[in-house]
Amino acid sequence: xxxxxxxxxxxxxxxxxxxxxxxxxxxxxxxxxxxxxxxxxxxxxxxxxxxxxxxxxxxxxxxxxxxxxxxxxxxxxxxxxxxxxxxxxxxxxxxxxxxxxxxxxxxxxxxxxxxxxxxxxxxxxxxxxxxxxxxxxxxxxxxxxxxxxxxxxxxxxxxxxxxxxxxxxxxxxxxxxxxxxxxxxxxxxxxxxxxxxxxxxxxxxxxxxxxxxxxxxxxxxxxxxxxxxxxxxxxxxxxxxxxxxxxxxxxxxxxxxxxxxxxxxxxxxxxxxxxxxxxxxxxxxxxxxxxxxxxxxxxxxxxxxxxxxxxxxxxxxxxxxxxxxxxxxxxxxxxxxxxxxxxxxxxxxxxxxxxxxxxxxxxxxxxxxxxxxxxxxxxxxxxxxxxxxxxxxxxxxxxxxxxxxxxxxxxxxxxxxxxxxxxxxxxxxxxxxxxxxxxxxxxxxxxxx
Length: 449
Prior knowledge:
The protein has helices at 7-23, 26-32, 41-51, 69-81, 88-102, 105-116, 131-134, 244-280, 292-321, 347-396, 407-421, 424-435, 442-447; strands at 122-125, 154-158, 165-175, 182-189, 196-202, 210-214, 224-236, 282-283, 286-287. By secondary structure, it is of the alpha+beta class. α1 (7-23) runs parallel beside α4 and α8 packs antiparallel against α9 (292-321). GO terms for molecular function: oxidoreductase activity.
């Protein structure tokens, strides 16, 4: 592993930081979250045009930059520093990879260029489960969480005319769901016996039966919405035999690396604000930063931030190293053993199909290991952000909890992220399970969450 960043990666970080310093101050953040979209749409277009941020990990043949999880993590670290309200995580981190990995050639051609250009934003609606569980970061993620029947969630049934599907149900806490131009909805289909989870593409602005309500959230900089579907028309993403839970689990490593880097950026900036404050706050005739106890507390926080940053970078590298070359394939591997015209499987086709399955199994195993690494990194980043912001509030004194001060924004981000993407102990427990750390230990298995 080469720990040094390339010149291109350094340029991405440097250019993005300069732009955000000019366009995304605390007052701008407060104004952006109160808009209908929940973010600065003009800034989002500028980030798309100048930096290609929405298409950072989209392939070049679809108008993207063609980078990977490491570049996305670096971008998220910079957006986390300023608590940028944007659809970056939902669009570039969740929707775009799923469309690239599962979508048909037509769906990729239609959606990915518009996502890469910043014209189209996306959101992933996962009923009845937190995002980490669906991504396999806190549990196996078998897909039952999509609901169906009397269990709630979202149900899907074929439309009467044989074209498309109808979705019925609801999903809460959908990141950026109130403003997304395209929704990927996980829904249960097939009834009780043969039920399975599939992903559906839904355009809220052009179909009926969709109600989107922005929720009041603890962290205003990360908007959430409730999606209600009443026989809303949708198209199946990819094919009916796609393994959606497995696809989401493969996405877990890169998504967790993005979240970890974002938390590290927020923690680093909160620590900077605290250091600036203790240098100027005078008590007993001297700056409080000169007291030994305060120095020790800040030194411990600095070490924690650096350790969390290293873990986030490694998680991003591991996620990128495990990414297979077929991320934007056309799904034709399933038919590798089909004879022309007759459907008979030749001996050569069987060998090819077996080779494809072996490669897919190896890739899945690598993705699972990357998800474990990323889960540990995310747990460390969430705990670091919580510790840094708690100390920041204490060292700022009474002003640290006032509505006008910036520190309270970072404190809310820490509390909200722990609820949305944690808890850290379950992230670590899942990583230990994936690594086989407690294999053969009945005492640990008996109390495992």
